[in-house]
Design goal:
Layout (H helix, E strand, L loop, with lengths): L16 E3 L2 H12 L5 E4 L17 E4 L25 E6 L22 H7 L13 H18 E11 L2 E3 L2 E3 L1 H13 L1 E10 L19 E9 L2
Helix pairs in contact: 3-4
Length: 230
């Protein structure tokens, strides 16, 4: 009967795990969860890598970043203190630094030096961040939690919160960041965890100065998708 929805083909099926880069996976997240024409606040815009393969004009994107040189507005905007009114966006995208090394108190000891400089370029402006007194992995969680509170404030009813994250080993302790932030978002902010995408890097991570391996090296990260509860 005409007008009936078409069945999804095997080729069109969106799956949860991908051996690919962020720019390849992010459009799939949008296709499944964020309708074309939605107003989106990308509050950690960086170099805009997520949007590289998203058709121009498909979304009303308001990009901002803590680093004014990366922020499309030319101004420094903290994802924990957004200059937006309540209930003003259909979607918020968050991709903050995920490793505790980016939150060290001494600028000379910040992560991302040497062979890892590309990570600092993508995830940090090279300055010491205000972590509200938290240290190490606690500083990572503090940023995700406070940014989540702001996202909850500016999202409309049924709004979508897309969060990029990666687990880490900090002080030789396994920290499952994607579970920790999900617990906070669900229990404290009443978000519903709607979906999860696993991004597996296509190349092997670098090894430097390792003698005895204790934990499996992380070569995957996540796009977590949360929905505002009614």
């Amino acid at each position: 009967m005409s007008g009936d929805p078409q069945a999804v083909s095997r080729e069109e099926l969106i799956v949860s795990a991908h051996v690919a880069g962020n720019a390849e996976v992010f459009p799939k997240v949008l296709d499944l969860h964020v309708p074309v024409g939605s107003t989106v606040a990308d509050v950690t815009y960086g170099k805009g890598v997520f949007w590289k393969d998203v058709p121009a004009g498909a979304y009303d994107v308001r990009g901002s970043d803590l680093d004014p040189e990366k922020s499309p507005t030319g101004e420094s905007v903290d994802c924990r203190d957004l200059p937006y009114e309540d209930d003003s966006f259909d979607c918020v995208v968050l991709d903050p630094p995920y490793a505790e090394g980016f939150f060290r108190r001494n600028e000379e000891m910040l992560a991302g030096s040497g062979s890892h400089s590309t990570f600092r370029d993508a995830y940090s402006n090279g300055d010491v961040l205000d972590t509200n007194g938290s240290k190490y992995h606690g500083a990572v969680l503090d940023l995700y939690c406070r940014a989540g509170i702001e996202a909850h404030r500016v999202l409309r009813e049924d709004g979508i919160f897309v969060v990029k994250t990666q687990d880490e080993v900090s002080a030789n302790t396994q920290e499952l960041t994607h579970i920790q932030i999900t617990n906070f978002y669900e229990e404290e902010l009443d978000f519903y965890t709607k979906d999860l995408f696993v991004v597996v890097r296509p190349n092997k991570p670098a090894v430097s100065g390792m003698h005895d391996q204790v934990h499996a090296r992380k070569n995957h990260s996540y796009f977590m998708v949360y929905e505002m509860s009614e």
